C-alpha cells in the first residue's frame, strides 16, 4: 500500500502546479514549518482558526515582526488550509491577506 505524500511535499507540489515562484515556495514551506513547530508538531488538520491566530499574534508580539512579514506568514497558512488541506477557516475567508482592514464610521 502506497503512502500519501508528506504534507510539505503536498504543499510544494500544489505551489508548482499553480506556477508560484521558487522563492515563494521556499518561504511558504518555511512559514508552514514554523507554524507546525510552534504548535509542538501537531498536524495542521488538527488545528483551527484560533491556532492560526495564536501563531500570527506570537509573530507580532514575541517576534516583533513587521506587518508585511506577518501577512506573508498569513498567506502561507491560508494557502495551506485552502489549497492543500481543503479546509475553510471562516475568519481567514473574510480576511484580506494584503493587510489588516480597518474601517472608521
Structure description:
It is built from 5 helices and no strands. α2 crosses α4. The longest helix has 18 residues. The C terminus is likely disordered.
Topology overview:
Blueprint: H1 7-17, H2 22-38, H3 49-61, H4 67-84, H5 90-94
Helix pairs in contact: 1-2, 1-4, 2-4, 3-4
Summarize the structure.
The protein is an all-alpha fold and 105 residues long. It has helices spanning 7-17, 22-38, 49-61, 67-84, 90-94. The protein has a single domain (7-94), classed as DNA polymerase, domain 1 (Orthogonal Bundle).
Ends apart, CA distance between termini: 59 Å
CATH topology group: DNA polymerase, domain 1
Highest CATH level, the class: Mainly Alpha
- Portion of residues within helices: 55-70%
What name goes with the CATH superfamily? Tyrosine recombinase, N-terminal domain
pLDDT under 50 segments (min length 5)?
93-105
| Biggest pleated-sheet summary | none
Instruction: Return Rg in Å.
Output: 14 Å
Task: Give the tally of structural domains.
Answer: 1
Q: Based on CA inertia axes, which overall geometry fits? A: globular
Average pLDDT for all residues: 86
- SS field, number of helical segments: 5
Tell me the series of helices and strands, N- to C-terminal: HHHHH
Amino acid at each position: 500500500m502506497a503512502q500519501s505524500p508528506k504534507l510539505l511535499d503536498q504543499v510544494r507540489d500544489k505551489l508548482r502546479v499553480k506556477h508560484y515562484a521558487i522563492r515563494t515556495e521556499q518561504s511558504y514551506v518555511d512559514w508552514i514549518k514554523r507554524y507546525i513547530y510552534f504548535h509542538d508538531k501537531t498536524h495542521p488538520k488538527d488545528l483551527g482558526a484560533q491556532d492560526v491566530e495564536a501563531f500570527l499574534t506570537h509573530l507580532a508580539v514575541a517576534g516583533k515582526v513587521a506587518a508585511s512579514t506577518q501577512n506573508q506568514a498569513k498567506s502561507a497558512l491560508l494557502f495551506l488550509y485552502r489549497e492543500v488541506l481543503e479546509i475553510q477557516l471562516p475568519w481567514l475567508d473574510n480576511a484580506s491577506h494584503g493587510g489588516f482592514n480597518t474601517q472608521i464610521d
